[in-house]
Amino acid sequence: xxxxxxxxxxxxxxxxxxxxxxxxxxxxxxxxxxxxxxxxxxxxxxxxxxxxxxxxxxxxxxxxxxxxxxxxxxxxxxxxxxxxxxxxxxxxxxxxxxxxxxxxxxxxxxxxxxxxxxxxxxxxxxxxxxxxxxxxxxxxxxxxxxxxxxxxxxxxxxxxxxxxxxxxxxxxxxxxxxxxxxxxxxxxxxxxxxxxxxxxxxxxxxxxxxxxxxxxxxxxxxxxxxxxxxxxxxxxxxxxxxxxxxxxxxxxxxxxxxxxxxxxxxxxxxxxxxxxxxxxxxxxxxxxxxxxxxxxxxxxxxxxxxxxxxxxxxxxxxxxxxxxxxxxxxxxx
Length: 333
What we know:
The protein folds into 2 domains: about 5-160, HUPs (Rossmann fold); about 190-330, Elongation Factor Tu (Ef-tu), domain 3, CATH 2.40.30.30. The protein has helices spanning about 10-15, 35-50, 65, 80-90, 100-105, 110-120, 140-150, 170-180, 180-190, 205-210, 300-330, and strands spanning about 5-10, 20-25, 55-60, 95-100, 120-130, 155-160, 160-165, 165, 195-200, 215-220, 225-235, 240-250, 260, 265, 270-275, 285-295. The protein has about 325 residues and is an alpha/beta fold.
C-alpha cells in the first residue's frame, strides 16, 4: 500500500479511528481511469474548501462477485494499485469495505447511516450520475441528495466523462484491451495498461534460435488480445527501464508456453528488450502496452520467425524515436 494513504479495512476501524471528517466519493474505481481522475480532482478541491480529508470508499471483493458471480468483471487493477494511484491524485485515506451478502442487504438509508455518516463522517459526498447504492441498488442520486439533507452532508453529482467522443468507463477499457486496442485504452486510462509479475525461465528456444526474451508470469485478470505489441518494460525492484516489444500468445511456432491459459491454451508473455540488459536479469517486471503491431501467427521455422521479430523491432524503434522527438519538442515549447 502507498505510505501516503491511510487504509481502513472495516466500518468499525474507520468509525473508531481518525477518518472523520471527510469529503468522500464512493465506487470500485477499477483502473482509476480519466473519469475517476476527474471526479477525484473535484473531490480534492472540495476537501480543501471545507478543510476535511479527501477520501474514498471502495469495496473488496467487487460487489458483483457476491450478488451476481456469473457477471463479475475481470478487474483491471488490484486494490493496492488503486490506492497508490489515488494517493498520487491527492486522496489521503481509503475505506475498503469488506463486501458480503449481509452488507449487500443494507437499505439505502442504512448504507448512508452506517457507511457515510458513522464510519466516514462525511461532510460532502461526490458521486457519478449513475451511482446506485443499497439493497438491489435501490438507491439513486436523488435519494442520496435527500438523505444528505437529512444527515447534514453536501451532495454533488458529476456527469459522465467522455474522451474524444468515447465514454470513459472500466467496462469500455476492458473491452479495448481484450480486443488489442491498447492505444485507445491508454487514452481512456490516462496511462498505458501494464502487466506486472515475476520473470520466469522460458524454454531456451528464444536465446538459441531467435532472440533472447524475458518471460513474464502475471496474475492479471485482463490480458491483451494475442499478438505482438510495442511495450515499455521496467524492473520493479531497481527501476531500470527499457523500450521493448512483447508477444502475447501461445507460441504457435514452437508449441505451448507458460503461465495462464487463453481459451484452453497455455499463454506466454515474452518481452524482447530493445536496449542492452546490463547487470542482473530482473526478477520482477512491469510491461506497459503502447501499441499493437500485428497478430500472432505460425512461422515455418525459427529463422523465419527471427526475420519477422527483427521487422517488429524496427517498427518499435521507429515508434520510440517519434515519441522521443515529440517529447523534446514539447519540452522546448
